[in-house]
User: Fold this.
Amino acid sequence: MIQKNKNQVNHFIIQIIVQTMIKNYLKIAWRNLFRNKGFSITNILGLTIGITCTILIFLWVRDERTYDKFQKNYDNIYQLMANRDFKNNIMTDPNMVLPLASTLEKTYPQIKNAVVTTQDEWDVFSYQDKKIKKTGLTVGGNFFDVFSWKFIKGNAATALSDPFSVVLTESSAKAFFGDDDPINKVLKMNNTTSMKVTSVVADPPGNSSIQFEFIKPFNYSDPTVKNDMNEWLNSSWRVYLQVAPGTNMAELDKNITALKIQRSPDDKISTYFSFPMSRWRLYSDFKDGKNTGGMIEYVRLFTIIAIIILLIACVNFMNLSTARSEKRAKEVGVRKTLGSDKKQLTLQFFFESMMIAFIAFIFSVGIVFLLLPAFNSLVDKHLFLDIAQPYVWIGGLVIILFTGVVAGSYPALYLSSFNPIKVLKGTFLAGKQAVLPRRILVVAQFVISILLISATIIVYQQIQHVKKRDMGYNADNLIMLDSSPDIQKNYTAIKDELQKTGMVNSVVRTFSPITDIWWKSPAPHWDGEPADAKIIVTGFATDGDFTKTLGIKMLQGKDFSAMPSDSSAMMLNKAAVEVMGLKTPIGMQMRYGPKTYTVTGVTDNVVMESPFKPVQPMIIFYDPNNTNMVCLRLNNTAPLQKALKSIEAVFKTYNPSIPFEYKFADKEFEKKFITEELISKLTNIFAGLAIFICCIGLAGLASFTIEKRIREIGIRKVLGSSVQQILLLISTEFLKLVFIAFVIAMPLAWWAMNNWLEKYEYRIHISVWLFALVGFLVLLLTLVVVSLNTLRAATANPVKSLRTE
Amino acid sequence: MIKITELEKVYRTEEVETIALNKLTMEVKDGEFVAVMGPSGCGKSTLLNILGLLDDPDNGSFMFNNIEVAHFNERKRADLRKHNIGFVFQSFNLIDELTVFENVELPLIYTGVKAAERKKRVEEVLDKVQIMHRRNHYPQQLSGGQQQRVAVARAVVNHPKLILADEPTGNLDSHNGNEVMELLTELNEQGTTIVMVTHSEHDARYSHRIIRMLDGQTVTENVLV
Ligand SMILES: Nc1ncnc2c1ncn2[C@@H]1O[C@H](COP(=O)(O)OP(=O)(O)OP(=O)(O)O)[C@@H](O)[C@H]1O
Ligand SMILES: [Mg+2]
Assistant:
């Protein structure tokens, strides 16, 4: 009985002791926070920036990594792709024949659903006086069985049951009907067909690979669709498979390839494979038929950068703590002799670093909220910190613990290993043993900063280099608009009227925009063609004024003359002449499909697809009926707004059913740099912040150094040292470290950035001068930061520092 | 060499205003050895700092070698100081991270003496204070007396015309103290002017003249022989 009581009492006492201990730790940590204001501010500032970066990057990374994950069948959805094996290139191609999906679904039981869709298409819908162009998909009837979208009105089962039905996204519905109920309302499509709205779904989330503003079903009774359903060679549709869990995909892929060869024996170059949904976003690059990665590289890179920036901030804490410890040595000594053991001391320091990490985290969350709109527009996403989500709290806790433990570990161990007697007797030279690790950490910080800065500059240079590349056409003052049946019908009149306005220099119709390639096919055949030629070329159709309007150089022969005789003429670009190995191309006969063409001209290479890659061979037909775009070269002396007004008037007259929408070629060209520009902007910001954190760390260290050497500075001044000599004395200590960092970082940066540049066939060569410049700038920055901190001590009256002993 | 008239120095802190020097007038001739004595806080160190051009007076005149220096700015004072004045402090004020040799070498570096010449002169002066065998030691490896001898060596290495010593024996036992005093006397006999603050009547007797101060003013002057 008594024994039990005693146990209880013991337990109670232990509880009190633990509570008071923790309270005590907190109290001391809190007090130290205020007692060393400079120290605390430097650390909190550094860690706040570090944690803010980390949160922002992690939000971005999370968004990238969760692409398409909202799909219920995420693990079982595949896109069917084909590797088309040409001699000059293995092309990985998502274009499939229309009947493939239904055939596959019928043939293979392990395929639960196979859905076919068009590529992104646009249609003009009108309702009352509203007429809007919308981008969407025409899909097979099982589209909503495979993909999960949130239905706001209507339901998946009946959404596509009628061929004249349309499903709108929430924002599309709002655009047409405002707050009215859209269900059963009728939209006129392309001025001809009436489509009934059957359902409304939420806009596809930002992290969805499939995007649309409307969905409509195939009309299988339409004659063209009927015709396409029997077409087994011409492919321009997308096919998605939903398979039964546990399906052997390798085997299925083999079967599909075999089935396809059976249906179209002429196609000997295609191998089919299923590309899992989990790889659509992050692993979208293919090279020579192999899946080589993609966005994932940047996701990984920025994950690493996030951690590194946080580490840089932690290093500040470590360095400043150990530097400050020289001042605290005595406190530690006294505590140790008073019986506080190693464990307690270590704990005390961890409490301090945790507290600072926690405060920094709170600040960071606030800053993230403030910065998110700007960051979102920078990365073109809709990221937000959803406090209701547990991952936010777990993430936060992990960041605080990580920061607290990493930042606190070294100072805690270092400080608690002080020998109390030496400390108290004053013979303990705290500086000496801490100096080397501290120097190593500073060097590491600067290595990373220099790496990031070099990367920033090289990415920028690469982008500029590619932008300055000769594109083979003139993108200034060039506008492009979608053609339409009305435009085709009235083209001669339109062209006439446009030229009459005086605002347009010349006009041409083209198969695709000059900034895109829509046509790839095997090369035509010619006499003397090597047996194993198997060349893939891009195709283009146009009419008269082609080179004149687009500003393309003719290398040989003549441009199309817009005569009917042109219909059997063909032009090649320079790359085609080279890859086909033609010595005298002009006048050669080319057999393409059922027809034979005569080569009448050779154009210069035009960069239409990736500006980072060499131009692909292209064959150009005179075929005005096979064009989808109209390109207008504006008169560059005409004021832009006025020019657009008069052009709009012309199109309004001859093409009233379609809203006047146009694109600038140079703007479209800029879009080819979206990824690179994003990487450039992000590395810019993070390199800047990394160097900033390094600098505040440096400033902190400099002031500790100065505090420690204040007497020395005084003595030197008494002995006749000038202010500059003092500044140099203190700076040299840091300049040396930064120089070492530079020497280490330079080869690393060179290697890493060459690796990155390898991705691009058209690229810069890294110049040594760049590193010299970076090195010089960083050294200069160090000098400035350290000098600014030293200046006060250097100009102070030495009498004062010599008195205070 | 030194002639100060009605010199004033006032320290102001938030609460108090301390008149450290109160219209002090005095003169030191070339080649003299003067001791300054007085109770703690009477302004001896303040006087020495002004004489050493480390601090500027608030009022009064300070002629150094017949030049008025009271209004000199920091840079001019530093320039005059490093060529003409050597300091010896009670607490030695050697730099711990530098060796004996390097400590003594410092003033020569700051006056721009070439390396070879520096080596010669440092060795010469280290010889003189009999610390040559310790030239590569660090200050903390030396006794107090040895450290002060290094400090004296450093003060004279530039051949200054004036040496200012603030309680140079304050941290030393009598044996080491006497050694330092003899060193100073020897320097004085070779022509260096010396002004020394001291609390010790014994040390003061090494000088030619004792100036006694009280509350920032000179009260008496004893001329010794
Ligand atoms: N920087 C300063 N700020 C404020 N007051 C000062 C300062 N320096 C000296 N004083 C004051 O000026 C007076 C003279 O000080 P000083 O150091 O010259 O005295 P001292 O004669 O050298 O004394 P001791 O023999 O103790 O060294 C003292 O009252 C001192 O408190
Ligand atoms: Mg004094």
The pocket of adenosine-5'-triphosphate (ligand 1) is lined by residues B 11, 13, 18, 20, 40-46 (CB under 6 Å). The two ends of chain B are 20 Å apart (CA to CA). The mean pLDDT of chain B is 91. Chain B touches chain A at residues 49, 52, 54-55, 74-75, 78, 81-83, 87, 89, 91, 93-97, 106-107, 110-111, 154 (CB under 8 Å).
